[in-house]
Amino acid sequence: MWVKVRIKLNRENFKDYAYFSLELNRNSTLLDMLVKIKEEIDQSLAFRSMCRAGICGTCAVKANGRPVLACSTKVLVFGEEITVEPIDNVLVIKDLVVDHEFLYNKLKLWKVWYNAEEEDKKVNASVLKRIEKSHECILCGICDSVCPVLTASSYFGGPTLLTRYYKLLFDIRNTAQEEKVQNLKNLNPQLCTHCMNCSFACPKKLMPEALIKEEENLLQEKGIIKREEGNFGFLEF
Amino acid sequence: MRAYDVIIVGAGGAGLRTAIECARDEDIKIAVVSKVYPTRSHTGAAQGGVNAALGNVIKDDSPETHAYDTIKGSDFLADQDAVFFMCENAPEVIYELDRWGVPFSRLPDGRIAQRPFGGASFPRTVFSADRTGHVILHTLFEQALSKDNIDFYNEFFLIDILHNGQRVKAVSIYDIKNGEVITLRTKAVVLATGGFARIYWQRSTNAVGNTGDGVAVALRNGVPLKDIEFIQFHPTGLAKTGILLSEACRGEGGYLLNKFGERFMSRYAPEKMELAPRDMVSRAIEYEIREGRGIGEGTSAYVYLDLRHLGEEKIKERLPQVRQLAIDFEGVDPVTDLVPIRPTAHYCMGGIHVENYITSSTPLEGLYAVGECACVSVHGANRLGGNSLIELLVFGKFCGIAVREYAKYNQHLPLTKAEENAGREYIEKLMKREGSEKLAQVRRRLGEITWEKMGIFRDEKSLTSAYEELSELLERWENIPLVDKSKVFNTNLIELMELRNMIEMARAVAFCALHRRESRGGHYREDYPERDDENFLKHTLVKQEDGRLTIEYIPVRITKYQPAERKY
Ligand SMILES: Cc1cc2nc3c(=O)[nH]c(=O)nc-3n(C[C@H](O)[C@H](O)[C@H](O)COP(=O)(O)OP(=O)(O)OC[C@H]3O[C@@H](n4cnc5c(N)ncnc54)[C@H](O)[C@@H]3O)c2cc1C
Ligand code: FES
After folding, report:
1. Would you call the peptide bond into B266 cis, given omega within 30 degrees of 0 as the criterion?
2. Domain CATH code at residue B317
């Protein structure tokens, strides 16, 4: 099939859409399409890819307005005219390549890791089931890119961070569980408006919003925040 | 100029595990350099699991049985003392990961579960559903992040290591984000840059970045590579894309069927059937296809993987990612459909010659190698599924201890201006490169040569022709223009450098394969179909000097098990 592609380029001397027209087979993914353009038409085109199997989280782009993993999304679903752009709300480095440093900086800043003792603790299957999604995050940055709260308020931890933080709160193997619960307050999960953008967009179907809701509940149960704090009048969308 | 005590190139499982161990001494300053963000490394794509004889499912399992299975699987080419070292230390590194938070799948009583895997006598493979590599990589990354004495150089590309012929002194790296070249001085360098199975460009399970950069850099610097002719072809790559379906498919009880619906493995490995080791299963599939019992013909032919009898529940619980991959990339649902599969280049048994398995040191002082880029050798001629991840963890840990101690008692070496500038000059030269070849065409040709002439079946003629044509390809590479002249995120330049590394590696593989006139494990010579212990029970070492390749052989360390026929 023939497709008409419009790609938003972002280079020192060119910041505009470029137009391509090419033939693809029906099984092609967006990544196959970008590779073909790079191989055959514009070798300067910049995008990231690595595993091409939906697990490394490096290839997020926006196609016809929807943020997706390029390697795991068929061109077919977009029809014959496709606009490809970098994902939103992050610094663009070149073309479809956006800054990822901020994702990693956040993990460091908020100490998103287990503190371990030198002794083994048994976890049971139900705890593992509960924290599974938190472990499955691939750091693609899509959920943060669609979060309206994150763009409006720097006090909000955002879905990526809160999703990954979740496991530290509920897994007894983390010896700093209590400390993490206290720090959770500073990530303000209660600012979430439950618009569900993140849960709809997450390519791994991790439902960040549901995890954030549980985190908010945890803070309330522990009496760390009060229930009313959830209503943020100033954040009207 | 910035200086570190230790520089680790590569932030996959091997690099990160080494870094964590090294960083236990807070006075040691460490840099971890990676061309992709650490969590994008290929380790994250490992699905099936990691081997350690915990004996949780069947008590009788032991490190010794693990060692025996590994040695037999290696077609007796593994160094047995190194294998024992790995298997004995395996349980502890798994418990460490458990403490750091890896969500390993559990038995009903809360202990870590284990599943059967190809070539193993007991269910020994520890797993986290079928995203084992992902959770291990992210957990290791988080632990590494917790260390304040590690600096990350993310999206920096290794150009070269600098040394004085005896000892390393610095690395030269290219900043992909802004096009600058920097030189970092160091007392020790650990290469953990992963494998080069992407040399089979059109049919590989590997991430596009597995281009063997670190191995090629070692080769260019006169460091010997060991046993690189042994490439593993994984039996269950998706037919259209080569994307891997984990060995867990067979481990959980999947069948392989030909076009008549026969479980053809009964012809090749009547006892182990689908759970025979990878090299045997891959060849069996290719024989079926050759004999006309596959579906379709030529390069697009395939056989079927049948998971339907496992039932929806088990597939969803144990193989969720496998199911998703089959749906996304092949358009079939394993719950209801047969899945078209074909062998695909998967893993490099060989790599940078490690001399001492306890430290992972190489013949060049201060240079260490761990992970898939290294050859210890614990995999010999054929690696068992689940043994790579355990290799990263065990040898990464002990390498970390060794470099940390080495760095304590050694000083930086002086660096000349010329050495400092060499990397920048190389990049400047490439930036000006003009020519008439096309990068994509040369790369495609590379993939054709490797697959057709040095793939699952090889012989004198095909290998000679591969070697010659790859030498020509290297000349054609010199004539590929750099189209993108920008400094910011120039992936055209990166691909050009990666292509050179791949061609050089492919040529060295062809050279070693040509000289090994026998069949063993992953290396199958149609003109020498038998294993020949008398002449070839030895490791190949290949070296490059002034562009010329030379070969020598060193003995295999056989400490316990005498070579026997490998039957399954
Ligand atoms: C699809 C798949 C599934 C697998 N499943 C299993 C399994 O179930 N069990 C098992 O035991 N094994 C499995 N393996 C094998 C195993 O995953 C790999 O062998 C292992 O992860 C390699 O780890 P590594 O740390 O050595 O290298 P990698 O994880 O590949 O990391 C290499 C690192 O080096 C860096 N690097 C490379 N070149 C450069 C450069 N020029 N400059 C700077 N940095 C560079 C990269 O950025 C990366 O960080 C699987 C392999 C594949 C392909
Ligand atoms: S390339 Fe890895 S997720 Fe798309």
Report:
1. no
2. 3.90.700.10
Q: Are B454 and B513 in contact (CB under 8 A)?
A: yes
Give the start-to-end residue ranges of the domains of chain A. Answer: 2-98, 101-229
CB atoms within 10 A of CB A133: 19
In angstroms, what is the span from residue A203 Cα to ligand 2's centroid?
11
CATH topology for A2-98? Ubiquitin-like (UB roll) (3.10.20)
CA distance A190 to A117: 31
Question: How far is the centre of ligand 2, averaged over its atoms, from the C-alpha of B176 (Å)?
Answer: 19
Residue A27 Cα to ligand 2 midpoint, Å, equals 17
Decide if A138 touches B, using CB distance below 8 A. yes
Is residue B167 part of the annotated active site? The answer reads no
Largest CA distance in chain B: 68
pLDDT digits (tens, 9 = 90+) for B501-558: 999 999 999 999 999 999 999 999 999 999 999 999 999 999 999 889 999 999 999 9
Residue B233 beta carbon below 6 angstroms from any ligand 1 atom: no
Reported ipTM: the value is: 0.95
Residue B103 within any structural domain of the chain? no
Burial environment of residue B426 by CB neighbours within 10 A (0 to 12, 13 to 18, 19 or more): middle
**Ligand 2, CB within 6 Å, residue ranges:** A 49-52, 54-59, 69, 71
Q: How many domains does chain B have?
A: 2
Show the 3-state SS of A155-184: CCCCHHHHHHHHHHHHCCCCCCHHHHHHHH
Mean pLDDT by 10 residues, chain B (568 residues): 96 98 98 98 94 95 97 96 98 96 92 90 93 97 98 98 97 98 98 98 95 98 98 94 88 94 95 89 94 87 96 91 89 95 96 98 98 97 96 98 97 95 97 97 96 95 98 98 97 98 98 98 96 97 94 98 86
Block residue for tokens 């950069």: B213
B234 is catalytic: yes
Assigned fold of A101-229: Fumarate Reductase Iron-sulfur Protein; Chain B, domain 2 (1.10.1060)
Report yes or no on B498 lying in a domain. Answer: yes
Residue B206 lies in a domain: no
Contact call for B37 and A58, based on CB within 8 A? yes
User: Could you tell me the residue range of the domain that residue B497 belongs to?
Assistant: 417-536
Q: How far apart are the first and last CA of chain B?
A: 57
Residue of B nearest to A135 (CA): B135
pLDDT tens series, chain A, 237 aa: 999 999 999 998 899 999 999 999 888 999 999 999 999 999 999 999 999 999 999 999 999 999 999 999 999 999 999 999 999 999 999 999 999 999 999 999 999 999 987 777 778 888 899 999 999 999 999 999 999 999 999 899 999 999 999 999 999 899 999 999 999 999 999 999 999 999 999 999 999 999 999 999 999 999 998 876 555 544 544
Q: Do B427 and B333 have their domain in common?
A: no
Short-list A174, A155, A165, CA closest to A212: A165
For residue B511, what is the domain's CATH number? 1.20.58.100
> Residue B360: CB within 6 Å of ligand 1?
no
Q: Is residue B443 part of a domain?
A: yes
Q: Measure the CA–CA gap between B198 and B212, rounded to whole angstroms.
A: 8
A107/B489 CB distance under 8 A: no
Closest CA to B68 of B122, B12, B2, B141: B122
Residues of chain B numbered 89-118 and touching chain A (CB < 8 Å)? 95, 98-101, 103, 105-106, 108, 110-111
